[in-house]
Amino acid sequence: MYDYTIIGAGIIGSLIARNLSKYDIKVCVLEKENDVANVQTRANSAIVHSGHDPKHDTLKAKLSVLGNALYDDLEKELNISLLRSGAFVCAHDKTEEKILDDLYQNATLNHVKHMEFLTYDQAKILEPNISPSVTKVLSLPTTKVCFPWEVAFFALENAINNGVELRRNALVTSITKHDFGYEIKTANNEIIQTKHVINASGVYADDIAKMIHPTIDFKITPRKGEYFVLDKSVKGFIHHVLYPLPTSKGKGVLITPQVHGNILLGPTSEFINDKDDISTSTSGLSYIKEHANSLAKDIPYHLIIRSFAGVRSSSTYDDFYIKEDTLNKGFYQVAGIDSPGITSAPAISNYLVDEIIKIDLPIKKTYNPILKKKVVFKDLPKKEKAIKQTENPLYGRIICKCEHITEQEIVDAIKGPLGSQTIKGIKKRARAGSGLCQGGYCESLVLKIISRETHTPLSKVNYDQLDTPILCEETKVKL
Predict the structure, then answer these.
(1) Helices marked H in 110-176 — which ranges?
(2) Whose CA, among 49, 264, 354, 401, lies 20 to 30 Å from 186?
(3) For 29, phi and psi rounded to 5 degrees?
(4) Which of the four pLDDT bands, split at 50, 70 and 90, describes residue 390?
(5) pLDDT of residue 267
(6) E strands, 37-91, where?
(7) Residue 367: inside a domain, yes or no?
(8) Hey, which residues does 197 pair with through a beta bridge?
């Protein structure tokens, strides 16, 4: 019997798990995918927004500003990557400048700090490649950029170190209410008994909610966003996150520097019916280019290394929906977490645990909020690299030439409490395959290392989900 079962291991579910791991209770996390952080957390802009945009006096406004500040704590405790980029919201004429003034007033009400207006000439000193059509910007220095997969991985690994249990490939098929709490059944015929349930299942939150409450008062209306990724050789082309003025569709097409040197262009914003639709389109990618050009000049489109799409869990409820279910005591809905969901994630966790659940227990003596810093070999000083290579020859073999990832880092990504045995899982953890060649050189080497370390035949190593082997049949045979 578990005290709390969390459905969904994205950034929200992972941070909630870490928060609950402070207490002497039994916690389980159920994830339908073969890996964590594989849906909404996997595909987004990675921005820790300042809190300037959400309508004042909403949960989105309150939790985005609080969440932004909490990322500094996560950096210290979990050793997450954080880029303090700041951001410019760009106006292009007198009409847009008036809207920019209104945005400033909203941000002031939301208690966003250190804002200022800049003229084009002032902005150009800081961003030489900003578009000459820009007439005025609102500077938001508290804006940051994170690496969302990493935040989820590190938070959940820390939770597991503190006693939380994780079950992957655990698609929830039914939930039944009992006197003791709830019984959850999964597609692999596992039965979980739990006193409380936390529904943090992202775009599937309404599907989970309907299993216990058929007439819920929110519906997920999935919205797809497409992106371009520019190679890390563009680092320095843009230093700040560049926003257009927000619209009813969201914050618009952005230019976003990333923690590893890449630049993201996007997203689009399109309501869709299929929650699993992560396809890109010619029209969507053309739309990105058209609108990105209004923010910066001479964008190096020839350095695009990939495109991708993600789905956001917008809902019919005009705010984050974080409540105890109205019919089922001990069943908590954490739904409609669209933008600024990444920003708000640590504050959402605190809000749920402290203000909605109201756990009244002492923090257990064994709780350790610190996660040891992972070895990133390419970032080590030269002398420390030499020591590492002497101690462990696997640090002396570069597997991913684009990102300078060593064999030992691949091994580390396979092993450990939240390790992965898939090509995509290793890419997410160690960045092997994330560079200019997109795995063209290193993917076969990663495949062999996974096979060796897990004692799995090469033909059985999966790309991502279960039953997704890369190798299907031999193409070269000896006669």
Answers:
(1) 120-126, 148-161
(2) 354
(3) -120, 130
(4) very high
(5) 97
(6) 47-48, 82-83, 87-91
(7) yes
(8) 5, 331
pLDDT at 129: 98
Residues identified as active-site? 49
C-alpha R_g of the chain = 23
**CA proximity to 213, closest of 323, 59, 102:** 323
Whether residues 27 and 119 fall in one domain: no
CA-based end-to-end distance of the chain: 59
Nearest alpha carbon to residue 222 among 299, 314, 289? 314
Tokens matching residue 6: 């969390």
Share of the chain above pLDDT 70, in %: 99
Residues 282 and 402 in one domain: no
Question: DSSP label at 378?
Answer: G
In a domain, 469, yes or no: no
Q: From CA 451, how far away is CA 457, in angstroms rounded?
A: 6
pLDDT tens, residue by residue, 401-438 = 999 999 999 999 999 899 999 999 999 999 999 999 99
**pTM for this predicted structure:** 0.96
Q: CATH number, domain at 452?
A: 1.10.10
Alpha helical stretches, state H, 91-147: 94-109, 120-126
> 246: pLDDT confidence band, cut at 50, 70 and 90?
confident
CA distance readout (Å), 148 to 14, 69, 131: 11, 16, 29
| 270 part of a folded domain | yes
Residues 234 and 383 both lie in one domain: no
Q: What is the mean pLDDT of residues 221-249?
A: 94
Domain count, the chain: 3
For 410, the domain range is: 378-460
Which one, of 304, 205, 313, lies nearest residue 250 by Cα? Answer: 313
Domain shared by 178 and 34, yes or no: yes
Is 231 in contact with 305 (CB distance < 8 Å)? yes
At residue 456, what is the residue type?
T
pLDDT recorded at residue 353:
98
| 8 A C-beta contact, residue 66 and residue 43 | no
